[in-house]
Amino acid sequence: MPHRFTVHLHPSESIDCDKEPYHEVGRLKKFLLCGSYDANQRPVKDMKFAVNVSVLPILMSFEYEWLDENLKWDPKDYNNQSTVAISSEQIWTPDFQLYSSTVKFDTKQSCTNLRCLVKSDGSVLAVPSCDFSARCEADYTDWPLDTQRCRMLFGAWMEHAGEVDYHTRFACLGSEQSNLHTQWRVVSAKKIKKEISYNNVTYPTLMYDYVLERHSGIHLAGILTPIILLFYRTSIIITGILLIHTLIGSVIKGRRNPPPSLIALLAGTIHKNKIGELVLAGEYMEVEYKVCVFTVNHSNDNIIGIKFQKSEIQQADNSELAEHQKTWGSFSRIMDRVMFLLYLATYVISFAMYIPLKYASRFGEYELHVLDYKDINHF
Question: Cis ω on the peptide bond leading into residue 144 (within 30° of 0)?
């Protein structure tokens, strides 16, 4: 899926070498450009040395910086003019191009209005206006909480590492740009420098990986509503089964006939186990309880109280209960604990199936530097 990022700059101005400039900036440009300067030659005095280009991508607006040995001057000779803006067409610029795009771009056409800020020590700073198309890997498994990784490979077409070498510092994201897109937002980035060898010649390559997350709010609104209804439907079904189970447990607990040998063995085994005794321990309000309301007249005040009283079956002395009644009661409690675990597992599975909790994997470790435009000069 192509994603394009564009930054616009003002058009550049040129210099006429046949006319005498009327200000210091024009005089400085004529001194730098109207002599023996050749924009097609690498800006080094000795061709054995390479030009080191530092690249700082901010979202997809690049900042280039390199040293041009032919663009140096003494600021004192030009009224302390230490910087000058020059059009990219008049000086040498690095052949830095994207070659992993889904669309074939020409750098001269995709990056326009490039003005360069030249300092008196020969360092050149350029921020081009580029329009790039990236290759993105889409995974819709966790839609709408899905992510995409967009990889962009940059390098020089003709100049090898011995002539021009590229270095990247950070992969930055302008805070004002992070959520401009209506469908996607950039959440992380990673930069890697690789060297590709071809015919015993090494070419530097800069790789940038950007991870994008979908703005999922509008999609979640249409998904969570039926999910909540399905969740409540499951909860109502479980409540109905729980009511039936409670009635069945009350009937089983009140039985007097001898239990089957398998039930007796199960109840006896659990009672002999310390953990089993702990699981079956505890008093709960059962359906055999009766609610009694009584009124006490004391002087002129009426005091209304409520007490819970067991039925005649439960009031019988434990010593007089038959052994099979104890077994049925234990079996009823075992059923109660097992059903509780089943209900709990059903709720956990339903929650995991219906409610999406997080975004998909972000493809490993990534670094992201978020900064305002006023902080760019700090790098």
Answer: yes
Element of type H or E holding 242: helix 217-253
DSSP letter, residue 24? H
Q: Residue 114 has which token pair?
A: 């490039």
| 227 and 354 Cβ atoms separated by less than 8 Å | yes
How many residues appear in the chain?
379
- Of the two residues 129 and 153, the one the predictor is more confident about is 153
Total tally of structural domains belonging to the chain: 2
> b/e string for 152-174 if b means 16 or more Cβ within 10 A?
bbbbbeebbbebbbbebebbbbb
Residue 96 has pLDDT above 60, yes or no: yes
155, part of any domain: yes
Decide if 6 contacts 129 (C-beta within 8 A): yes
203 within domain boundaries: yes
Query: Is 60 exceeded by the pLDDT of residue 210?
Result: yes
Residue 116, beta-bridge partner list: 86, 126
CA atoms within 13 Å, Cβ hemisphere of 84: 31
What's the CA dihedral at 23, 26, 31, 37 to 10 degrees? 180
Q: Which of 87, 112, 107, 208 shows the shortest CA–CA distance to 157?
A: 107
Q: In what helix (H) or strand (E) does residue 359 lie, and over which residues does it extend? A: none
Residue 210 to residue 150: CA distance in whole angstroms: 5
Q: Is residue 206 part of a domain?
A: yes
Q: How confident is the model at residue 91 (pLDDT cuts 50, 70, 90)?
A: confident
**Structural domain boundaries, residue 224:** 220-354
Q: Report yes or no: 211 and 189 within 8 Å, Cβ to Cβ.
A: yes
Pairwise CA distance, residues 306 & 315, whole Å: 18
Measured between alpha carbons, how far is 320 from 367 in angstroms, rounded to an integer? Answer: 74
Could you identify the residue written with the tokens 């234990």?
A: 330
CATH number of the domain within which 203 lies: 2.70.170.10
